[in-house]
């Protein structure tokens, strides 16, 4: 990829537009809200497939497969340059990578103990907090409150014996990580060109996760079928959604991004039903209605 001039939109040999330019044009033609929705669907499908891997591998080993696959793919495609980076750039990239690692480790531990809809609903408290902190309009508080009501309904505290308090604790830690991700990904997008900041952060994240992932997974990590599934999970859960989210964050306010991400519990619950046969109750469907209404209200209020 790096052999081509990024500022030359035409292949001079054939006279045709370069593939990279076509991809950028296609991405630019999608509204930022659409990019976020595509990212949500991708990451939740990846989480669903990852949860099925828990029968063969512990959560930390699945995280290792996911992040390593994503880091290898992004590193090969983007080839981030390390020369010329300031110490602030290094600090930003390393902080972003550590945040990604901790967010994924804690979320997968929660996912192994909770239904997908509940785990993601609790984790959503992170971006919801970012949205509240960034909001400057009263109408935004209405949508945030409606989304918050949906989160409460999706997380039936004490109403189900299947709800693990340890899982809830991991989900809360993942919420803190997700809040950090929203903030740091936007900052990395301003400091690094294209998706090089993401690629740098994923490499750091893979190095952070490697010790615990390799020790917990052991020889099982060498099974070809598990490696193949891990590659797919890495694409769906890391490469595709992170790239789409970074592009969206460059073109929309952080608080609108945070509100749009309220669709995560709804999509997670639906994926849980279709892929994992996790039954939804009436209360959970009511939560989905609240969250979807909050997302629609925020996007109709402002053109992004």
UniProtKB/TrEMBL annotation:
Transmembrane among keywords: yes
Coiled coil: none
UniProt entry tagged with the keyword Membrane: yes
Major localization class: membrane
Topology of the protein relative to the lipid bilayer: Multi-pass membrane protein
UniProt subcellular location: Membrane
Sorted UniProt keywords: Membrane, Transmembrane, Transmembrane helix
Domain EamA intervals: 166-297
Annotated TM spans: 56-78, 90-108, 114-134, 141-158, 164-184, 196-214, 226-244, 256-276, 282-299
Similarity field: Belongs to the EamA transporter family.
Protein name stated in the entry: Inner membrane transporter RhtA
Organism: Nonomuraea angiospora
């Amino acid at each position: 990829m790096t052999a081509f001039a990024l500022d030359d939109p035409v292949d001079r040999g054939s006279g045709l537009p370069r593939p990279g330019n076509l991809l950028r044009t296609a991405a630019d033609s999608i509204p930022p809200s659409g990019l976020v929705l595509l990212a949500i669907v991708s990451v939740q499908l990846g989480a669903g497939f990852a949860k099925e891997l828990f029968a063969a591998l512990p959560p930390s080993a699945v995280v290792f497969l996911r992040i390593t696959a994503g880091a290898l793919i992004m590193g090969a495609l983007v080839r981030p340059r390390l020369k010329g980076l300031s110490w602030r750039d290094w600090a930003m990239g390393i902080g972003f990578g550590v945040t990604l690692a901790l967010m994924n480790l804690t979320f997968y531990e929660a996912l192994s103990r909770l239904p997908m809809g509940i785990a993601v609903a609790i984790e959503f408290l992170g971006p919801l907090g970012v949205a509240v902190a960034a909001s400057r309009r009263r109408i935004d508080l209405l949508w945030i409150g409606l989304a918050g009501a949906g989160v409460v309904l999706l997380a039936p505290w004490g109403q189900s014996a299947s709800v693990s308090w340890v899982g809830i604790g991991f989900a809360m830690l993942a919420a803190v990580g997700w809040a950090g991700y929203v903030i740091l990904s936007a900052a990395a997008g301003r400091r690094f060109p294209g998706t090089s900041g993401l690629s740098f952060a994923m490499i750091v994240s893979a190095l952070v996760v490697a010790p615990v992932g390799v020790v917990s997974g052991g020889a099982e990590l060498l099974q070809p079928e598990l490696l193949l599934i891990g590659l797919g999970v890495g694409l769906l859960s890391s490469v595709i959604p992170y790239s789409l989210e970074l592009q969206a964050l460059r073109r929309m306010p952080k608080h609108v991004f945070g509100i749009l991400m309220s669709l995560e519990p709804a999509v997670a619950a639906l994926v849980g039903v279709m892929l994992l046969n996790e039954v939804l109750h009436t209360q959970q469907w009511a939560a989905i209605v609240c969250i979807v209404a909050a997302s629609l209200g925020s996007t109709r209020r402002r053109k992004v």
